[in-house]
Amino acid sequence: MDIVKRTIETLGGGLTLSTALGIRDAGWPMPAALVLLSPWTDMSLSSPSYKHNKKREAMLTAGFLSRAAGHYCNETTRGRPVRRQDSGVSPIFADLAGLPPIMAHVGGDEILLDDARLVVERAEAAGGEAIANGANVARFDEVQAMAEQAMAQWGRIDILVNKAGILRDKS
What we know:
By secondary structure, the chain is of the alpha/beta class. The chain contains 5 helices and 4 strands. It has a 4-stranded parallel β-sheet with strand order 1-2-3-4, with helices on both faces.
């Protein structure tokens, strides 16, 4: 599979980040960039936005996410549970060094807001390039500003858009 210069994009922003960490740790070629849409990266739900944005959040609740995290971390079956702060399930607690550029998009009213902000802070602290954007995708002016932000950071946005796609086996 040719995964060099591909962008991983998904609504599962936390899974995207975890996948990129696994690719890095395996020594495989990295994608050109990561686009994280509303990334859920902290199964411990420890970020302030889980409380601060709970009344403004349109879809998710901290209670729902807590139950989902319990299932994801195997707290509800007979198997051995994983700590919610383990970097294998909460990539925000992982070493983010060696990742490609990251654009994390999250709405300003989402309870996942701090998950996206922390990804950017920790990626930059590890020497990487990252930007977070809280544009309302229903407003053209905010989407335009988001594209301009990416262009100002990287000089172009096609690495975030044009290279996204389905991986195909070229053998």
